[in-house]
Design the sequence.
């Protein structure tokens, strides 16, 4: 008999299952949106960075690329959790799957490239998912601070 099985037997431990790791029931696509906007902002900064050919340029470029790729991965993670753990009541499962698949592929393309077109499409894709998500809760989606968050 293992220590684990002894503890489970002594304390009457039962296995629990839930729709996610911690069943909080709180979902919000805003974290994916912020990550997507960060990708977009890093692309803007990368494209506008002047190549001085020195170590400062290399350091700044490296940091921008790292942040872009990290946030594209954060966006992918947040989308995967939302897709897999939320029940999506009243929606077409195939339509939802296609939208998430497209968004996940865009996030991957944003990691692979420096493309404002891809970054803007990622933000738009996350907004589309957010619109559907909030509609399942009877709420009209808007992100009135998106431009202020993104900045100049």
Sequence:
């Amino acid at each position: 008999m293992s220590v684990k099985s002894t503890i489970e037997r002594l304390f009457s431990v039962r296995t629990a299952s839930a729709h996610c790791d911690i069943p909080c029931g709180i979902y919000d696509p805003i974290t994916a949106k912020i990550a997507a906007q960060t990708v977009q902002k890093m692309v803007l900064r990368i494209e506008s960075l002047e190549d001085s050919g020195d170590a400062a340029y290399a350091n700044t470029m490296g940091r921008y690329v790292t942040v872009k790729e990290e946030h594209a991965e954060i966006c992918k993670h947040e989308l995967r959790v939302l897709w897999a753990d939320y029940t999506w009541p009243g929606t077409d499962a195939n339509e939802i799957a296609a939208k998430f698949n497209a968004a996940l592929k865009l996030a991957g393309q944003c990691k692979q490239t420096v493309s404002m077109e891809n970054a803007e499409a990622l933000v738009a894709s996350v907004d589309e998912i957010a619109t559907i998500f909030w509609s399942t809760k009877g709420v009209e989606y808007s992100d009135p601070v998106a431009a202020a968050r993104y900045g100049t």
Notes: The longest helix spans residues 55-85. The chain has a mean pLDDT of 91.
